[in-house]
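Researcher: Please predict.
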Amino acid sequence: MERVVDLLDPSLNRLHNLSLDEARARVLSGDPDAVRTIDGSFAILARNGKTVRMARSLDRPMRYFLAKRHEGPALIVADRMDAIRAQLEREGLADQFHPSYTRMVPAHYVVEIQLLGCPDPDPVYTRYFTPERNSQPADLDVIGARYIGALADEIAKWVSSVPANEPIGVAFSGGIDSGAVFLTTYHVLRKLGISPSRLKAFTLDFGDGPDGRQAREFLERLNLGLFLETIPASLDDIDPAETVRTIEDYKPLDVECAAMGLALCRGIRKRYPDWKLLLDGDGGDENLKDYPIEENSELTIRSVVHNLMLYHEGWGVGRIKHSLTYSGGLSRGYVRTYAPARQMGFDAFSPFTRPSVINVS
């Protein structure tokens, strides 16, 4: 009598090498090698009787909640806590809800749950993606070429999978990550014989701020200034409470990023009511471990070097510091990009989150 409610939107899965049914069968198998072959962006639940297995890519938040019923347990899966709460209310189980009782599927793992009732057994985690250490030659030019080459391959697959008549925006600050995404997308479009006129670099403008100047200088030095479009915004319009509600999280850096993301997406939506596609550079800092270590008293060079996916996954599944509610690293933090874009009606994508790109980094 166990019940599973899957509230995930299947249309958000963007798979490049197989159908959704085939991907779901690979997740159901529990075979990490089979799941690793799923190419694209996905959040997938598969069930066989009392066994439920779930897996997601780094860019797709996936949460679940196990409720109690007289008939048996009810597993509710969604991309948001408020969607889970609303479902519990519809089923008359709202008094069981608490945000800390929700769980997040960590990226790069198959999570297995047995719907056996009380007491609930712990989930079983099986890693399906492990980058190989020291796989590149000690030559920065070669590493750089392979890194941007992998980025170009992922952008090409994404461009080929989206509608050919849709314009493409890049959330652009003029920094190295958004700059790499914009230039590589421009290169890929030309290589594929697609007019770059589909492309725009959207930069948030609070009135002659540093991002606007940096973005303009970046593109003008490359004679690509015609692609820049500034989106005006006011600091008075930034609402931290709205941002926290949107991302359902409270970490200051993620709240700050999401606040800017909301402002940019809202400004684009106001100017272009039908715009859908939006690229960004989220994950670039994590790939290059580009965070000031001195700002976190817990970190040492040793802890960063020896924790392979520290910035992508936090301290890791099964560790004392691993939160079941929020996961860790970019696995947790990507909601800062995903949720504002979804709220404003955009289909967003960062090629830096793809395993082939992370492998090189």
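Model: The longest strand covers residues 199-205.
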